[in-house]
Amino acid sequence: MLEAFLLVSIGMITAVMANLGIAVFNDGLRPIIPENMEGRMSRRELGMTAFAMSFGLVIGFGIPISISGSILLIHSILLGTDIIGLAFRRGKLTTVMAGILGGLYGAGIYFGLQAVVKAFQMLPLNFIDGFNKIGEPVVVSFMAFPAIAIALQFTVKKGILAFAVAALARQLVVYSNTAKLIKINGTAVVLSPEGIALIVGMAFLIGFAMKEKSEDQNLSALASMFTDRVARIKKYFWVIMISGGLVAAATNLLLIAGDPISLNLLSSGKITEGGIAALAKAIGFVPLIASTAIATGVFGPVGFTFVFGVGIFSPNPWLAAIFGALVIFLEIQTLSKLAKFLDRYPGIRASGENIRTAMTRVLEIALLIGGANAANAIVPGFGFFGIAGFYLLNEAAGRPIVRMAVGPVGAIAVGIIGNILVLLGLFTPIK
């Protein structure tokens, strides 16, 4: 009951915030909302834009990843409530309607995915076990994203240097764990190889970015230009705090996760590693989320996404809710100072978009490989053929399905085809 209550509450409050233009999850929607609020775009156009930008990611990315890890990826909830909230006009009655529909959507995601998983388990060919292989390459591949971001923003040589040092750090940790070199009170300490590699890569990225300093003596341009919009976010801080607290509590219960990497780590029982990955991802996204929030006056329902790490490391959901709300409060109160910091270090501000691009590219490759491995585990031989064909046909058709979704959606398709083959007597599952 607590899990269902949390998802219904998250669905309601995030749909209302989207409807009122307080906060949206899709970073691409944030700059568009002021166009509607200031009369340059109709509400109908805004709603259609939200649907076009988010629906495919919910169906093709959020839900398949959630099924594969048995933990809800936050995208499957908050991208949906973005659509719901922005589809309704602002008004007392319509805002209430958006909240009710958002709550029903949250309940539908919770109970609906459980029903889907149970239905899959009843099929002649149960492909859930094979489907779980989708996340295996994601965890290992994710540590490469800082190096890719460095290569995109600075030079390929610097990207290669960061990648090589991160890879070396990973192998040294693997050796240390195997040889039990690190001990506390006689007990061997096992570190996360991927987590350490990710930290090393992020250190390189931040270091290179901070070398780019602004020569302009007026270091408060971003803060001064958008003072009113920052004030608008601060006006509604209490609503966003509630949202952050609810999300942190749900994360603590391992009900939701903020990204595919931490989701797969958490579903494998690697709680500490999942928390480190969540915090590293949050650090990487601060420049992007802060810049768009300051410039538009529209925040994110999970802030800078630190609430996921807070939720993972909290001892229980009640404290997670309190800590999550406090983190959101601190994020909002430091927006003006962040604006001055980003003005002083333009390299860090520019890194936001490069980090997002790097993460997307890593996930595209990792999920494609994971999807191929999962599909081949479900129907050996045919799985690789199916994913390769699905990927190439999607490219030839102009990419109607985003690349990140090709692997998971393709694996589901292979699972359905495998069941049809079993029913026709053309395939015998390996027990």
Automatic annotation (TrEMBL):
UniProt superkingdom: Bacteria
Protein keywords: Membrane, Transmembrane, Transmembrane helix
Parts of the chain that traverse the membrane: 6-25, 46-73, 93-113, 134-154, 188-210, 236-257, 278-300, 306-330, 365-393, 405-427
Keyword Zinc: no
Pfam family, one: YhfT
Protein name in UniProt: Membrane protein
